[in-house]
Amino acid sequence: MKPLETIEVLQTTFFSQRMPAPIRLRELIRTIRTARTQAEEREMIQKECAAIRSSFREEDNTYRCRNVAKLLYMHMLGYPAHFGQLECLKLIASQKFTDKRIGYLGAMLLLDERQDVHLLMTNCIKNDLNHSTQYVQGLALCTLGCMGSSEMCRDLAGEVEKLLKTSNSYLRKKAALCAVHVIRKVPELMEMFLPATKNLLNEKNHGVLHTSVVLLTEMCERSPDMLAHFRKLVPQLVRILKNLIMSGYSPEHDVSGISDPFLQVRILRLLRILGRNDDDSSEAMNDILAQVATNTETSKNVGNAILYETVLTIMDIKSESGLRVLAINILGRFLLNNDKNIRYVALTSLLKTVQTDHNAVQRHRSTIVDCLKDLDVSIKRRAMELSFALVNGNNVRGMMKELLYFLDSCEPEFKADCASGIFLAAEKYAPSKRWHIDTIMRVLTTAGSYVRDDAVPNLIQLITNSVEMHAYTVQRLYKAILGDYSQQPLVQVASWCIGEYGDLLVSGQCEEEEPIQVTEDEVLDILESILISNMSASVTRGYALTAIMKLSTRFTCTVNRIKKVVSIYGSSIDVELQQRAVEYNALFKKYDHMRPALLERMPVMEKVTTNGPAEIVQTNGETETSVLETKPPPSGLQPANQANDLLDLLGESDITPVIPTAPTIKPASAGGELLDLLGDLNLTGSPVSAPAPQIAQPPFLLDGLTSQPLFNDIAAGIPSITAYNKNGLKIDFTFERSNTNPSVTVITIQASNSTELDMTDFVFQAAVPKTFQLQLLSPSSSVIPAFNSGTITQVIKVLNPQKSCTWSLVLKASMPRSPFGFAGKEHWYRKLDGKEEENGLSPGQFVAAVMGTVYVVPLVMLVFCPLEQLGFVVCLW
Amino acid sequence: MSVLLPIWFFSERDLFETQRLRLMLFFFPLLSIQQMQFMLLFSRQGKLRLQKWYVPLSDKEKKKITRELVQTVLARKPKMCSFLEWRDLKIVYKRYASLYFCCAIEDQDNELITLEIIHRYVELLDKYFGSVCELDIIFNFEKAYFILDEFLLGGEVQETSKKNVLKAIEQADLLQESQNEDWGGLSEDIL
């Protein structure tokens, strides 16, 4: 030994002449821990990193593992350590076990799946899987099972399978879990492991047994074929489980008096998967489940863990009814347990079973409601969800009382969910309208600011429909907002109601309650203070202004005051508010004769379904924002930002019209020729002149509206439509899928004029969501000749990069100088409340119902055409 | 009527769900029926002592998750239950002296057995170090990892016997020491 040591010393001296031995890992940790400030620590680390880097550069093999270990420590402290990645590989390739141990550890910590170094690693792992030392093989298996990428798994699956068949249980258990990882990464490799699973359950070693059960579970969950194949293992699994429960004390696997709970839980879970939807297997495991459920010691957490798993299995398979009752009662017992963890687990599993075993869960209602008062948020949340699931027609009053109390006292994070839950439950089970409205009022006043935005239109619809409650409701709301405008949803609903039912409020017709004495001026005072208050959101102000406007037809002696307010806001800096005010002002000045009809009370709205289309109805008369908020995206696949795009698009301010290129002025005859050319085309299409009533629209909208449902015909593209046909102006749309690029839709617009005057300055505009590309070709002319003597045609090309997308396109045509006497240059949309169609409107103005909002649009068309797939077009006038 | 699926047909909740799903996919590209997604050990001061990830995530994501989780867990009161719903995962944590042991499992998993897994790991550390304390884990973090890797593999328990785990670790340690001697005797601890 002596001479060898001398050489070693010599070597070390030689090294230290170039570079001193790096400080030890523990030394470094100690030093870093002495750092008093973050800056000091950073400085130390930087210094050490520099040393480590230069040592790496020197290709110092002796101390590489020390350096990497130090790097791992710094990495844990949050410092960058990626420069050690390659060094880890070098360590793995080394012959020394220490090097390999640290190298694999570093690889697991520093490399992630996406690293290219993985390719280099595959070889090292392959060598080590065939190493003669089981601990080296174990390291390789562990690393593969922890971070093997799919390429790696493909390359090494064969090795893993070989190791799965060895008799060495140390390797076998690791190989089984590695196989699980391989299957997770590359499911098609599953069958490769099938032969090796044959004898896995005969194994005595619990480690192998446990990992085998995990492997079988994974295979069964991933493939129905495997599931069917492994159903035959049920008796064997039952036997293993039985032996575990019945066998006496075995010190090796005992946990607080229970024999190998980890294995028991795993077997129970596999039984659950095997017994699901299978009568025979379920039958075969009934007895053992009953045995586990009754014989398991429950004083400790372990026992409860097994019971919990048993309950889940009983609820999931086709078990006997007696067994199910036993399971629910176990959960009932859990609810009374002192241990919060057990209570939480009980609530979670009751929530899972409440659908199937409603009555059994209902029996534990009072205990569940008590959990609402728990201090722990996790338990509270579960209890809240479960409470809502338990509400039914019989207990709705009692449960709501508890839940309203909860809403009042709970943390802010629960309020929005709780309020939504109450709204839903109240809508479903309300014993009376009065109760329903009272409940909602309670929610609005206790948690007004947390109510979700979509609640507002829903509530307004509810209120509108409860005709006999109008006076009562408006009075309650009026009282609720007196002096407190902070809760926006409450103020919005209240403003809307006051605007709608202000006359009832002032006349004091309330029968349900002592009527209050309010004057018209007092009502206006409060609405005005909402307008002024800096607590009010822009949307709320919009509600208030519209309410004031509506009161102009409901109040008798304050019209002048209303006019004044409206004209003041005509110069508001809030664009939305200003626009409303300007429009209302115009209504006072230019169209005063139409005002009463326009501002008439909203009719009762029929709710078509609880979900979708009804929301359109509800949003009638609401401010734009609420419309936008209640308008969900076209499909669950749409990313949210696209939704925003469309929302932006629909908001007038954000419309990005594509200014068409200057129209080429052509003589009328040219237009005529074009018409001749296109005449055939038009005939071969499927123009529908008399538009059919729109489905799912409230009847009052239909009167003056034309709508055109077009049906799915993906292959043939979208049929052509007559978008507009009134007052002599007819506009047809023809759709074509581009031949070269199927995601391009070509829309040809044809406008013709049957009146005796030429229509001039016809401009057509279109806007699309930002993800689309739009190309507006020049129109054939800007003048539509009279007597149908010619047409204007214009081509629009829309590129929709996402083929499956169903976004709408907004088209807008305007004729500043039309023969109808309307000569405003600006395009303006106006939203008004309700049913007033074009009766009383001057010719050339139509009401377009867009997304449930009624817009009065002077010669502006809004056409919503989903461009792909869904293939329906709604044009409403 | 069924042909007409207007864009407002899909409720706001769907939108929310989609976003959630996207978020989840972003953070957890591997949506599997995995027992454990990751395990973290951190001190009462919020210092990370050990991290083991069983799902492939970038360093940035790992750091973000760690930071958020440490904050959330430390903010909880001692009397609260050991479970926490966080993003789409369930967090099971338990405090032992000054150290928090924190595991992320999937919704379908058994929280109670996860507590047992944590406890078993603590027992293993205790046996190995002999009444373990935080300092042992700080100064011998690599050993803590080695023990964990003998106990869990890919997020699943690989050995249910304490004795076997410790035996494997001891023998691997022995192998390491004997090799160090063979390779020129850089004393007992090369690190």
TrEMBL record, chain A:
Residues 716-847 form the GAE domain. The keyword Protein biosynthesis does not apply. The keyword Aminoacyl-tRNA synthetase does not apply. Signal peptide: none annotated. It is found in: Cytoplasmic vesicle membrane; Endomembrane system; Golgi apparatus. Pfam families: Adaptin_N, Alpha_adaptinC2. It is a peripheral membrane protein. GO terms for biological process: intracellular protein transport; vesicle-mediated transport. SUPFAM superfamilies: ARM repeat (SSF48371), Clathrin adaptor appendage domain (SSF49348). Its main location: membrane. This is AP-1 complex subunit gamma. It comes from Cyanistes caeruleus. The gene is AP1G1.
Automatic annotation (TrEMBL), chain B:
One of its GO terms (biological process) is intracellular protein transport. It is a peripheral membrane protein. It is found in: Cytoplasmic vesicle membrane; Golgi apparatus; Membrane, Clathrin-coated pit. Gene3D superfamilies: 3.30.450.60. One of its GO terms (molecular function) is clathrin adaptor activity. GO terms for cellular component: AP-1 adaptor complex; clathrin-coated pit. Pfam families: Clat_adaptor_s. Residues 35-175 form the AP complex mu/sigma subunit domain. Keywords: Coated pit, Cytoplasmic vesicle, Golgi apparatus, Membrane, Protein transport, Transport. InterPro entries: AP1_sigma, AP_complex_ssu, AP_mu_sigma_su, Clathrin_sm-chain_CS, Longin-like_dom_sf. Subunit of clathrin-associated adaptor protein complex 1 that plays a role in protein sorting in the late-Golgi/trans-Golgi network (TGN) and/or endosomes. The AP complexes mediate both the recruitment of clathrin to membranes and the recognition of sorting signals within the cytosolic tails of transmembrane cargo molecules. Adaptor protein complex 1 (AP-1) is a heterotetramer composed of two large adaptins (gamma-type subunit AP1G1 and beta-type subunit AP1B1), a medium adaptin (mu-type subunit AP1M1 or AP1M2) and a small adaptin (sigma-type subunit AP1S1 or AP1S2 or AP1S3). Binds to MUC1. PANTHER family: ADAPTOR COMPLEXES SMALL SUBUNIT FAMILY (PTHR11753). Belongs to the adaptor complexes small subunit family. This is AP-1 complex subunit sigma-2. It comes from Cyanistes caeruleus. The gene is AP1S2.
